[in-house]
Amino acid sequence: MKTNMRSAFLGLVLTFSAMAGYSQCKDFKWPEDKAKAEEQVALYDDAKTQKNFRAAVAPLQWMLKNAPQWNTKLYIDATDIYNNLATAEKDAARKQVLVDSLMMLYDLRITNCGDEVNVLNRKAIYAAVFNSQNKAKTADVLALYDKVFEISGNNVLDNNLLSYMQVIQLNVALLKNLSDDQILQRYDKLSTVIDVKIKKAQTDNKQADVDRLKKVKSSVDDILIKLVKVDCNFVKTNLESKWKANPTDLALSKKIFQFMTTGGCIEDPLWLQTAEVIHKESPDFGLAKNMAKIYAKNGNLNKAEELINEAVGLATSNTDKADVLILQGDLLAQKGSKVAARESYRKAVAADANSKDAYEKIGDLYLGSFKDCAKSQSLAEDRLVYLAAYDMYVKAGSQQKMGLARAQFPSVTELFELNWKEGESKTISCWVGETVVLRTRGKE
Known about the structure:
The chain is mainly α. 73% of the residues lie in helices and 1% in strands.
């Protein structure tokens, strides 16, 4: 069997060296002996259908030698057959022969049919699967990926995005053949491609693709951090001065932003400055929300509110919209605009009926409004805000805060002084404006 596999590989090499020039292989180009070719196609196709991949090799080899420009189907079938053979093979030496044959088939396809960008992208996928952990081949796989990213521009297949970074990681681990600068150069190229793909998916309103690509980007970043020490000190020492010399540099801004986010130094002013550059170029929900939180923490409530308002418009799901509306309400409450804050919380509930946090926030507003609403004429009337707060906490399912509000209910005596009775409904006359059912805090 080992001899047969080597013979098959040598056959491919001879076929490869004999061919020159190419067409797109879109039409069927039969050899002079068409009947023989039809027979060979039927033989390998039938064997392939029955998953008898070894039986498919001989007729496939005949076609590769005698009709190499027959049709792209020949190479699609051939790579499928050799992929299955290589996957199933247990003997390491025989497996490598089959893998080498598989790689050669992609080169044969390019020689005879062209379409280099597409074919090399597909070759890279299987090179990573079969050869990236083979120390004798690891560097070659990286070279292949470098070429794929060079010739593909932003049209690299999605399957090759994370794989590129994994191949870089394997080269470092197995061969120690890359410097930090060489790693970062490749990372920059890869990150740019992913960012372009994310932006296109956003433009095409394909949220699932956006989410998937962002997960890929996160995984790529996680690998980078393991390979290169790009903590906050690295940024401050090596990148900050470069950025300040050209603060509109989007690529550098993205790099600094990612490194500082991963390094946990988002409190640094440079993080916000680079985030502003990125957000201006490509407005993003999550970025707007997180920037707003930092601005609010720093006391710049107006800027925080501006970004939160943007985030509301950028939210693509009801959950996200409710989340950011709650943040908007928090900012308004912090500024003392309780009515406007409640309106934001109510919008959050309207966006997502399961948003219990919004009910709790409204309850907090009511609980803290005793002084705002107190007329100081009757404790029973002044304490109505606690009944309203309690009702909101019930909707939120907050047992602890329900207890806090219940402890401040009117007493039996306080109701008696107004000739009010439990079970009656009363409307709160201040900004709260809720109608509540009278209850007491229990025995006095």
